[in-house]
Amino acid sequence: MEDIPDLAVEVKGVTLVKDSIALFPDAETIRGRKHLRELLMLKEKGCRAAVFFVAQRGDATSFSPNSANDPRFSVALSEAKEGGVEIYAFSSNVTLTEIWILREIPVNL
After folding, report:
1. Residues 6 or more apart from 61 whose CB is under 8 A from it?
2. pTM (2 decimals)?
Protein backbone atom coordinates (compact mmCIF):
# COMPACT_ATOMS: atom_id res chain seq x y z
CA MET A 1 0.00 0.00 0.00
CA GLU A 2 1.20 3.49 -0.88
CA ASP A 3 2.42 5.68 1.98
CA ILE A 4 0.22 8.81 2.07
CA PRO A 5 1.07 11.65 4.47
CA ASP A 6 -1.57 13.03 6.82
CA LEU A 7 -0.92 16.56 5.53
CA ALA A 8 0.85 18.03 2.50
CA VAL A 9 1.54 21.78 2.35
CA GLU A 10 2.98 23.86 -0.46
CA VAL A 11 4.22 27.36 0.44
CA LYS A 12 4.44 30.01 -2.27
CA GLY A 13 6.31 33.26 -1.68
CA VAL A 14 4.46 36.24 -3.15
CA THR A 15 6.41 39.38 -3.99
CA LEU A 16 3.98 41.17 -6.32
CA VAL A 17 1.40 43.46 -4.69
CA LYS A 18 -0.78 45.87 -6.68
CA ASP A 19 -3.37 48.10 -5.03
CA SER A 20 -2.94 46.09 -1.79
CA ILE A 21 -3.70 42.80 -3.60
CA ALA A 22 -1.03 40.11 -3.41
CA LEU A 23 -0.77 38.44 -6.85
CA PHE A 24 0.82 35.10 -7.72
CA PRO A 25 2.55 34.24 -9.95
CA ASP A 26 4.57 37.21 -11.19
CA ALA A 27 5.50 35.16 -14.30
CA GLU A 28 4.25 31.93 -15.90
CA THR A 29 4.84 29.01 -13.54
CA ILE A 30 4.77 25.52 -14.97
CA ARG A 31 6.21 24.23 -11.70
CA GLY A 32 3.48 26.00 -9.70
CA ARG A 33 0.76 24.29 -11.74
CA LYS A 34 2.54 20.95 -11.24
CA HIS A 35 2.56 21.48 -7.47
CA LEU A 36 -1.18 22.17 -7.46
CA ARG A 37 -1.85 18.99 -9.45
CA GLU A 38 0.27 17.02 -6.98
CA LEU A 39 -1.68 18.44 -4.02
CA LEU A 40 -4.95 17.55 -5.74
CA MET A 41 -3.77 13.97 -6.36
CA LEU A 42 -2.78 13.63 -2.69
CA LYS A 43 -6.17 15.01 -1.61
CA GLU A 44 -7.91 12.45 -3.83
CA LYS A 45 -5.95 9.71 -2.02
CA GLY A 46 -7.17 10.88 1.38
CA CYS A 47 -4.43 13.29 2.41
CA ARG A 48 -5.26 16.73 3.76
CA ALA A 49 -3.68 19.18 1.28
CA ALA A 50 -3.13 22.92 1.46
CA VAL A 51 -1.32 25.74 -0.30
CA PHE A 52 -0.11 28.80 1.63
CA PHE A 53 0.58 32.05 -0.22
CA VAL A 54 2.85 34.26 1.87
CA ALA A 55 2.93 37.85 0.65
CA GLN A 56 6.34 39.14 1.58
CA ARG A 57 4.94 42.59 2.18
CA GLY A 58 2.92 44.01 5.03
CA ASP A 59 0.68 46.14 2.79
CA ALA A 60 -1.12 43.15 1.20
CA THR A 61 -4.75 43.03 2.33
CA SER A 62 -5.99 40.21 0.08
CA PHE A 63 -4.72 37.57 -2.36
CA SER A 64 -5.72 36.69 -5.93
CA PRO A 65 -4.18 34.49 -8.58
CA ASN A 66 -2.51 36.60 -11.27
CA SER A 67 -4.59 35.64 -14.30
CA ALA A 68 -2.87 38.22 -16.48
CA ASN A 69 0.53 36.56 -16.02
CA ASP A 70 -0.54 32.92 -15.96
CA PRO A 71 -4.20 32.15 -16.68
CA ARG A 72 -3.51 28.40 -16.52
CA PHE A 73 -2.27 28.74 -12.93
CA SER A 74 -5.53 30.52 -12.05
CA VAL A 75 -7.53 27.66 -13.53
CA ALA A 76 -5.38 25.07 -11.73
CA LEU A 77 -5.87 26.90 -8.41
CA SER A 78 -9.65 26.95 -8.87
CA GLU A 79 -9.63 23.24 -9.76
CA ALA A 80 -7.53 22.47 -6.68
CA LYS A 81 -9.98 24.36 -4.46
CA GLU A 82 -12.95 22.59 -6.03
CA GLY A 83 -11.16 19.30 -5.36
CA GLY A 84 -10.78 20.09 -1.67
CA VAL A 85 -7.28 21.58 -1.49
CA GLU A 86 -7.28 24.26 1.21
CA ILE A 87 -6.02 27.70 0.19
CA TYR A 88 -4.66 30.22 2.66
CA ALA A 89 -2.93 33.57 2.26
CA PHE A 90 -0.94 35.68 4.70
CA SER A 91 0.83 39.01 4.74
CA SER A 92 4.23 39.19 6.35
CA ASN A 93 7.13 41.43 7.24
CA VAL A 94 10.56 40.58 5.92
CA THR A 95 13.92 41.87 7.13
CA LEU A 96 17.46 40.77 6.39
CA THR A 97 17.38 38.36 9.34
CA GLU A 98 13.79 37.18 9.69
CA ILE A 99 10.30 36.89 8.29
CA TRP A 100 7.14 36.86 10.35
CA ILE A 101 3.48 36.44 9.54
CA LEU A 102 1.36 39.51 10.25
CA ARG A 103 -2.12 38.22 9.54
CA GLU A 104 -4.22 35.93 7.38
CA ILE A 105 -5.70 37.75 4.38
CA PRO A 106 -8.74 36.84 2.24
CA VAL A 107 -8.31 34.68 -0.87
CA ASN A 108 -10.30 35.83 -3.89
CA LEU A 109 -10.48 33.36 -6.78
Report:
1. 20, 21, 91, 105, 106
2. 0.93
